[in-house]
Amino acid sequence: MSVRQPSRADQPLGAEELLALLRRRWQASYDLQLVQRRGRLYLQVMWAYLEQQSFPLSPEAYADALEELVGTLNGLGVADQVRQWLETTRDKPRLGKALSLPLELPAGRASEFLL
After folding, report:
1. Which of 12, 23, 67, 69 could cross-link 74 (Cys pair, CB 3.0–4.6 Å)?
2. CATH assignment of 14-113, given 3.30.428.40, 3.50.50.60, 3.40.50.300, 3.40.50.2300?
3. Cα(20)–Cα(111) distance, integer angstroms
4. 36: helix, coil or strand?
5. What is the C-alpha to C-alpha distance for residues 111 and 105, in angstroms, rounded to an integer?
6. Whose CA is closest to 76, among 101, 115, 105?
7. Residue 96, Ramachandran bin (φ over 0: left; ψ between -120 and 50: alpha; else beta)
8. 84: closest CA among 98, 67, 104?
9. Angle at Cα 19 formed by Cα 51 and Cα 33, nearest 5°?
10. Rounded to an integer, what distance in angstroms lies between the CA atom of residue 81 and that of residue 74?
């Protein structure tokens, strides 16, 4: 009997990993938001980022917001979708234009989160 090694897809997303993905992709700690529109849920990478002087959150508040977001993403079962997208997207957030990832929620999860 062989023991299956967990793949990265089985692993929950951590706040540190998410932050590292953002910094590796765009060299900035962008603001992330979950947005519901027309019965769909999207992860948006906003154009504002922690390193900007005008960014409204302190580093501590940003870290707390990331922790809460990864908890939600893991609960939705979309951690690997987020990883894959952040590693492969060629787009970049621009002033006034967020990037949007339409999340493909596993069966049963959508009704829990979309009211």
Report:
1. 12
2. 3.30.428.40
3. 31
4. strand
5. 9
6. 105
7. left
8. 104
9. 80
10. 11
Pick left, alpha or beta for residue 5 (phi over 0 → left; psi -120 to 50 → alpha; otherwise beta).
beta
Each residue's pLDDT tens digit, 11-59: 899 999 999 999 999 999 999 999 999 889 999 999 999 999 999 999 9
State whether residue 29 is helix, strand or coil: coil
pLDDT given for residue 95 in this prediction: 92
The structure tokens listed for 64 are: 């707390």
> What tokens does 84 get?
């894959």
